[in-house]
Amino acid sequence: MVSSPRQSVGANTRPAIEVIPLTLHIGAEIRGVDLTEPLPPDQLRQVREAFLKWKVIFFRGQHLDHARHVAMARQFGEPTIGHAVFGHVEGYPEIYSVAKNRTANENRTAMMVTPWSGWHTDITAAVNPPCASILRGVTIPPYGGDTFWTNLAAAYTGLSPTMRGFVDGLRAIHKYVPRENPKAGSEYNERIKRRALASEHPLITVHAETGERVLFVSPSYVKEIVGLSPRESQKMLEMIWEHVTRPEYTVRFKWNEGDIAFWDNRSTSHLAPTDIFQSDFDRQLYRITLVGEPLVGIDGKPSRSIEGLPILSAAEELRMMAAE
Fold this sequence. Notes:
Blueprint: E1 7-9, E2 17-21, E3 28-31, H1 41-54, E4 56-59, H2 66-74, E5 96-99, E6 119-120, E7 132-139, E8 147-151, H3 152-157, H4 161-167, E9 171-175, H5 186-194, E10 198-202, E11 204-206, E12 213-215, E13 222-225, H6 230-244, E14 250-253, E15 260-264, E16 268-271, E17 284-290, E18 304-307, H7 314-323
Parallel strand pairs: 3-4
Antiparallel strand pairs: 1-2, 2-3, 4-15, 5-17, 6-16, 7-15, 7-17, 8-14, 8-16, 9-10, 9-13, 10-18, 11-12
């Protein structure tokens, strides 16, 4: 257990790593590892423990190429296809290009902006959202372009006991929806039509590894709470979204070239930067996600698919595409 701002983990073993917590609830920098090579078993265990405890962990100056990024990810799980809706890097089906002007960023100027706009958990429209995401910085602006994460387990604990009792049994619909401006969002909308995804998840999930209760409310993808009227649902969601993005549950990360962010997609939401669109600086990162399982509520009931197939491993997705 990390008990001080700077503590060696596994002090009785070699090699040890350092875990440097960045906030009270979320985020830690990991030092003493080289991700360009396979991690020794003891370091692998220590990194995994830090990942589960701090929800998002950061590695500075790793400078991986695509192949080493894939190899690093495979030590922690099975990579999915780069992105189930928006494709992958040519020659590397496991990798998704997080470029400044990618398709998912189309039509941003027409979006209504709220305090929770842009916050999301990756691909929760699928019945089995990725269990983790690993993002690698390659081209980073000299300033601006920071990413935020929030701890959804801490946010659940931060609700009043009365509110926790109300939300514990609720379920919510997550899905991609077409954008209203067909000209600016045409490619985005076409990709959503080709891989339509919609799922019903418990509003409060039980983390498969830690047993924590998680307020699973991805603002970009949750569209309604089952069993509530549209007005009730919208007001409840807005209150919850405001709550989960409170500063005390979040960490802000300033990128440098070669940095890695590795986060638990089952217990966090994150916010990609929008300030980069107000500058001429380029920004290029690459992401790998790991195959996840349907989520489970407090009552033991799992997520339910409404439309679309589960997210498969990259190899399985390619086989399925070849068979079509």
